[in-house]
Amino acid sequence: MRSGADGNANSPSGSGATLTRSYAFERLAAIATVLDANGDIVDTNDAWRLFARLNDGPLATTGTGVNYLDVCDRAAAAGEPDAAAVGAGLRRILAGKTQRYDHEYPCSSPDEERWFLIQASAAPVGDSTGVVLFHVDITASKLRESRFASEAEHDELTGLPNRRGAIRIIEEQLAIAGSTGRPMTLMFLDLDRFKAVNDTFGHHVGDELLVKVSSRTLRTVRAEDQLSRIGGDEFVLVCPGLTQDDVVALGERLREVMGQPFQIGPTEVTIGVSIGLAFSGPDATVDSMLHDADAQMYRDKGRRRHRVGRVRSTPIERHSR
Length: 321
Prior knowledge:
Layout: H1 16-27, E1 31-35, E2 41-44, H2 46-54, H3 59-62, H4 68-77, H5 81-94, E3 100-106, E4 115-125, E5 128-137, H6 139-152, H7 163-180, E6 184-191, H8 194-201, H9 203-220, E7 226-231, E8 234-240, H10 244-258, E9 262-264, E10 267-269, E11 273-279, H11 286-303, E12 306-307, E13 310-311
Antiparallel strand pairs: 1-2, 1-5, 3-4, 4-5, 6-8, 6-11, 7-8, 9-10, 12-13
């Protein structure tokens, strides 16, 4: 590996082993540099220099002879928390406190979202211990992670958040309610006689009905209300900032629009919806709110007479605890 600022991987001087190692370093796909015991850049490879050129990185911050620790400190002072973490990690290596430091960080540009993994390892540089530093582009894997995480929290049929996503939403809104005092309501929605729809018309009709129910609900509620499908024909609607009267009125409106016929191909299906409510309070938790709304929904369903083609409407029960 080269130690001079202007060294060349193909220089005739040095041993054959040094030439081979230098050539391998030069041709690495990873963006790489070498720091000496003081944190000065003593070597960079093609990928490092190309990245600097394409991203307008001046030699004053990327070239040999520059103190990389100072670069990290200036970036940290400018408000970049990742730079502070990287500087601290490199200093631990140079102080002999650890042999390795890894750190993931975003490095977005106006044209694309990018992520890199810094891999720093202690290495002999001259007569002292320095650092070999790699910046590995992990954008593709991060985007796959993000997609998989999104898929893990979303219902494949409707595209709505699933139970896992709903729990995260409720937790977030409870935290906001607790810190700001802004009320939050959880509305539990269960389609009436959905099993009969499947039995009468087939599961393909039932699946399309769920998609249409989701779409109709989203068109009825506010943009800030968050709808999730938590399983089967059960939905949860999280409504921040509404009074109990507002929520009851919204429930009645949903019951009204769900009572209108759905057309699925040549089939007309008319259903209804049973509704239960739970309101945030000082002791509210995700489990308690789901339990309370679910229990109220079942009481509502028990009071209703329903069949596939016709559903009788009953008032929504107000919440009391």
